[in-house]
């Protein structure tokens, strides 16, 4: 990859293979994927159901381990870390947003946002948290509990929480999957703003071409392989690419 020498990658995998199970029932969820996620950019991962998107994200984020190949965060190959170091790296350098918002119901919005910092026993930067609260537009909801918020508002809390510790990279697995299109659009705008205005790195799995169009680049998986990349995606271009998968059984 010629860009590798000039582009700093916040995370990525090289020759990634992930096999679930063994023998007759083994599933090769990743079949030799090499992809870097450039720092300061918003990358979307797309592909048919079962193509390995979540597996790629989980392995790149250190939530799961590869069968072979390397996953890295910054310059750190995850396989060189013992469990304790991996836990610390995930805590300090990686943020997550999931389809189900996964907020703590008994904590307020403010407490949910600073939870990763509180768990780490650090205060973080007050200015940073303050700026985040404004970016996600939750200033007037800080003392509410998640049950008192709409789905879109809850996901915005989850986004703020993911960025609270200024991680190197935030991974989001279908963050708009449970939202109506307007709330989804707000969350996507938020992720885009974090990348463009706050110099963050986001990697997002999505099924939705409109969501993918918010990214700087889309990488396409099919049958556990990287089959295409698209710079400056539009919803129409992404939709056309997805149709080609359907027509050709996944392969381009
Ligand atoms: N824990 C597991 N045990 C066994 N097989 C698994 C496991 N997790 C995923 N798989 C299989 O690995 C393949 C890739 O799954 P993965 O969840 O990465 O797909 P995906 O692209 O995220 O799909 P979707 O769009 O439906 O979320 C699928 O065939 C899936 O059944
Ligand atoms: Mg998935």
Automatic annotation (TrEMBL):
<dbReference type="Pfam" id="PF00005">
    <property type="entry name" value="ABC_tran"/>
</dbReference>
<feature type="domain" description="ABC transporter">
    <location>
        <begin position="11"/>
        <end position="248"/>
    </location>
</feature>
<dbReference type="InterPro" id="IPR027417">
    <property type="entry name" value="P-loop_NTPase"/>
</dbReference>
<protein>
    <submittedName>
        <fullName>ABC transporter ATP-binding protein</fullName>
    </submittedName>
</protein>
<keyword id="KW-0813">Transport</keyword>
<dbReference type="InterPro" id="IPR003439">
    <property type="entry name" value="ABC_transporter-like_ATP-bd"/>
</dbReference>
<keyword id="KW-0547">Nucleotide-binding</keyword>
<dbReference type="InterPro" id="IPR017911">
    <property type="entry name" value="MacB-like_ATP-bd"/>
</dbReference>
<dbReference type="InterPro" id="IPR003593">
    <property type="entry name" value="AAA+_ATPase"/>
</dbReference>
<dbReference type="GO" id="GO:0005524">
    <property type="term" value="F:ATP binding"/>
</dbReference>
<keyword id="KW-0067">ATP-binding</keyword>
<dbReference type="InterPro" id="IPR017871">
    <property type="entry name" value="ABC_transporter-like_CS"/>
</dbReference>
<dbReference type="InterPro" id="IPR015854">
    <property type="entry name" value="ABC_transpr_LolD-like"/>
</dbReference>
């Amino acid at each position: 990859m010629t860009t590798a020498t000039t582009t700093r990658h916040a995370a990525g995998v090289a020759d990634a293979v992930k096999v679930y199970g063994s023998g007759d029932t083994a599933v090769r969820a990743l079949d030799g994927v090499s992809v870097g996620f450039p720092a300061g950019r918003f990358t979307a991962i797309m592909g048919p159901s079962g193509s390995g998107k979540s597996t790629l994200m989980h392995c790149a984020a250190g939530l799961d381990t590869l069968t072979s190949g390397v996953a890295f965060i910054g310059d750190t190959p995850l396989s060189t870390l013992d469990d304790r170091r991996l836990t610390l790296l995930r805590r300090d350098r990686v943020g997550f947003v999931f389809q189900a918002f996964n907020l703590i119901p008994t904590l307020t919005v403010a407490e949910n946002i600073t939870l990763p910092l509180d768990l780490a026993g650090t205060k973080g930067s007050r200015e940073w948290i303050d700026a985040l609260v404004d970016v996600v537009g939750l200033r007037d909801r800080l003392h509410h509990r998640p049950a008192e918020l709409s789905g879109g508002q809850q996901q915005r809390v989850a986004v703020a929480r993911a960025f609270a510790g200024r991680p190197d990279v935030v991974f989001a697995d279908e963050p708009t999957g449970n939202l109506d299109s307007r709330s989804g659009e707000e969350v996507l705008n938020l992720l885009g703003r974090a990348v463009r205005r706050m110099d963050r790195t986001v990697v997002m799995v999505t099924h939705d071409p409109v969501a993918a169009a918010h990214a700087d680049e889309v990488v396409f998986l099919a049958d556990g392989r990287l089959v295409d990349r698209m710079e400056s995606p539009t919803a129409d271009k992404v939709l056309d690419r997805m149709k080609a998968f359907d027509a050709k059984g996944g392969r381009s």
